[in-house]
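Problem 12. The chain below contains 403 residues. Write out its predicted structure in token notation.
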Amino acid sequence: MNGSRSLLVRADRAVTLDGPLIEDAALLVEDETISAVGPAPEIEPRAADAETVDLPGMTLLPGLINAHCHLDYTCLRGRLPAGRSFSRWALAIVAAKRRLRRRDYEDSVREGLDELLRHGTTTVFEVSCSSGSYAVTRVAAETPVRIAFFGEVLGINPFKAGGRMRRFRRGFEEASADNVIARGMAPHAVYSISKRLMKMIQRELARRPMPITVHLLESRNEPRINPWFSGREAVRILDERGLLHGPVLGVHVNYPDDEDVAILASRGASVVHCPGSRRFFGHDPFPAERLREAGVPICLGTDSLASNERLDMLGEIRSFLDAHADFTAEEALRMATAVPARFLGQEGQLGVLRPGALADMIAVPTPGLRAGSCGTEEACASVVKHDGEVPWVMIGGHVVRRA
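Solution.
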């Protein structure tokens, strides 16, 4: 093996999301990548010098990817009651943030990353405000979780637009830990950005193209705090300003009309749905079927603990499937693995188990399955039923959780 670090991981089966289910599965990991995947009798002869990890009663699958989170709000868990109107909740979170210190943000990020890891998330799309950006920068190197960092930009006061952009640039440059695998911008929402700031965002993206994530059509009545925005035309405004022409992830998109869906599809935009947050606010059912029919890729995320109970991606997948019977468990798992990986430009590297992919994987107990007794969909459904912490996690070839 030319001095490389080798590990043979064996489990009852592997859901690779890159091909059929593998029973009596083995994966050979060399350094940080997967070098071989297949039935154990085929892989074991290639791993004579490898350390072996046996995971009986477990199913292996790619590490989960949380495509929308605000880790800096972890400390707000349970402090904002569910059922409020979105506008009242937004005012409450602004008031709560005024009482937070830098140490609170750091502790929030640290606690949130730990909770994500315990529930099997190996990559997170983190959207951070300016104080949160500082906290993510300070804490990122402490965790093995991969971070796609999106610096948030918002402000309706045109006279403060320049300062907002300077803070974004500072946070963007500082987000440079080894496990920060992507960096982008998060214009908060059309309703929370002044015209002047919007123009600065356009110039910044023209000068330095990058992926963006933006809250879109989250509530039926978006807050009317911005004099140039009447509440329903967010997708059209972004399209007219050229902000849907690069890698764009629309967050929530609970209330699109047919024209919105058509624009998102034509621009190649993706959408991230947060089932727990939708339930928290009591929004209408998410239009997953319409988006899928139009060809809009759908990812899943948790949002923050200011509008959810746990940072648990398997829980989000279960909630999604409970509300959308037309989707299979395999489709829903892809929304938390391969689909967000593709958005990041990491297709084939993250979100799948295949030779050449990064060795990010989890093992979940599947006690109801017998060896050789199921297909891919049954295995995926059994994995999704797991309610609780994930006992075994590998990131980049290192076992980072072994409960």
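Discussion. Residues 64-343 form a domain with the TIM Barrel fold (CATH 3.20.20.140). Students who got a different answer should revisit the alignment rule from Section 12.3.
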